[in-house]
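User: tokens in, sequence out, please.
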């Protein structure tokens, strides 16, 4: 009997590789998103500390520096918020890519399973047919 061979095995392996790459890209995007969130929280903490510290400043020069620093932190906060939103969008795209790659792989795996089942059924049928022929030959020898 010949061994089962799935004709689309190379395509299936390629789909598995694509899915693995997509998972790696998703992990990178998730890391980037976490990093943006951490930077945003750090800036928010600095902003709160500066706001809490500003009323205690007496000198006009220090007050001016504090206001400039507050403005800088607000701009940084806005910029980091935009970066975070973009990172979240990229992460969502990567998730969709992973889901699509997984679906394609699963379709091919299901096809492979079906073909294997058909192969086994065909082999069982051929084996049963061969046994029946041997039994018939044996029966004919005994009776003649």
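Assistant: Sequence out:
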């Amino acid at each position: 009997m010949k061994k089962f061979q799935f004709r689309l095995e190379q395509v299936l392996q390629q789909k598995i590789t694509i899915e693995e790459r997509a998972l790696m890209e998703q992990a990178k995007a998730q890391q980037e998103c976490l990093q943006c969130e951490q930077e945003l929280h750090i800036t928010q903490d600095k902003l709160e500390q500066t706001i809490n510290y500003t009323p205690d400043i007496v000198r006009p020069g220090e007050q001016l520096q504090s206001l400039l620093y507050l403005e800088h932190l607000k701009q940084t906060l806005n910029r980091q918020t935009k970066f975070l939103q973009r990172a979240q969008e990229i992460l969502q795209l990567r998730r969709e890519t992973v889901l699509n790659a997984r679906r394609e792989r699963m379709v091919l795996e299901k096809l492979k399973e079906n073909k294997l089942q058909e192969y086994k059924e065909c082999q069982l049928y051929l084996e049963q047919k061969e046994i029946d022929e041997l039994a018939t030959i044996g029966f004919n020898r005994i009776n003649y």
